[in-house]
Design goal:
The chain is of the alpha/beta class. The chain has two domains: about 120 residues, D-Maltodextrin-Binding Protein, domain 2 (3-Layer(aba) Sandwich), CATH 3.40.190; about 90 residues, 3-Layer(aba) Sandwich (D-Maltodextrin-Binding Protein, domain 2). It contains ten helices and 14 strands. It is globular and about 60 Å long. Bound molecules: glutamine (GLN).
Length: about 260
């Protein structure tokens, strides 16, 4: 048993290792083993997750690594389309996910959520030369680009119904922004910290935010519904990082404030 534990521990760093799954099915971990958890993340969602010089970085990525470090577990990051993330947790293919995931009552039925770690919500976005759309009330007959499986998709469906707009769905945020820039869609709906960052760092984004924020929500780290142990570690880690200043440091690294 001890030899097995040592071997599993030694394998912990290999990509694709399923040590966390093996260990958790064996009950409490043996001394000396470090649990490894697999976390899904969005593929392209700066400043929360994005690829830079062949590495995954961003607020979410640094945060989950810092939590893992302070709580003594290992993390493997799996970037994927946002729509696949929650189904992968419920199917047991991921231990959890950090992907700018808004905490909603609907999602709470199928996954567990950490304490909220970031304030977000939705904004309406148009091409920067579009002065015709100033808010949702101008959406009649217009096309909304949105991302599958997101809070944006839900809001788009609601507004499409209310104001008589059409919707086109995409797998990632850059594709939906492009649709607006190319004038194939009139508007898109995106989390305001994400679109504000995009507009701030990309002078050629050709996008602007219009009207008031559509909704407010908070991001949480998602875990398997019954994984109380992992959830506890995440909440403890988050709390420590907020107290010791590391959380603020991470946010500042990417947003400058
Ligand atoms: N916060 C939004 C949601 O949870 C969008 C997340 C994302 O696109 N990564 O639906």
């Amino acid at each position: 048993m001890l030899v097995m534990a040592l071997i599993l521990g030694a394998c912990g760093k290999q990509a694709g290792s399923s040590s966390a799954a093996n260990e958790s099915s064996q009950g409490s971990p043996s001394a000396g083993t470090v649990k490894k958890y697999t976390f899904g993340t969005d593929a392209t969602y700066p400043p929360f997750e994005f690829e830079k010089d062949g590495k995954y970085v961003g607020i979410d990525i640094d945060l989950i690594h810092a939590i893992a470090e302070i709580e003594g577990f290992e993390v493997e990051i799996k970037p994927m389309d946002f729509k696949a993330i929650i189904p992968a947790i419920t199917a047991g293919q991921l231990d959890g996910a950090i992907a700018g995931i808004s905490i909603t009552d609907e999602r709470k039925k199928v996954v567990g959520f950490s304490d909220p770690y970031y304030e977000a919500g939705l904004s309406l976005i148009v091409r920067d030369d579009n002065d015709a759309i100033k808010g949702p009330e101008d959406l009649k007959g217009k096309v909304i680009a949105t991302k599958k499986g997101t809070a944006s998709a839900k809001k788009s469906e609601e507004l499409a119904k209310q104001y008589g707009a059409k919707i086109t769905y995409f797998d990632d945020s850059p594709a939906m922004y492009q649709e607006v820039v190319n004038k194939n869609a009139d508007v898109t709906i995106e989390d305001y910290p994400v679109i504000s960052y995009k507009i701030a760092v990309d002078p050629n984004s050709h996008l602007k935010i219009v009207g008031d924020r559509l909704t407010g929500d908070s991001y949480g780290i998602a875990v398997g519904k019954k994984d109380e142990e992992l959830l506890q570690k995440i909440n403890d880690g988050l709390k420590k990082l907020k107290e010791n200043g590391k959380y603020d440091e991470i946010v500042k690294t990417y947003t400058g404030g």
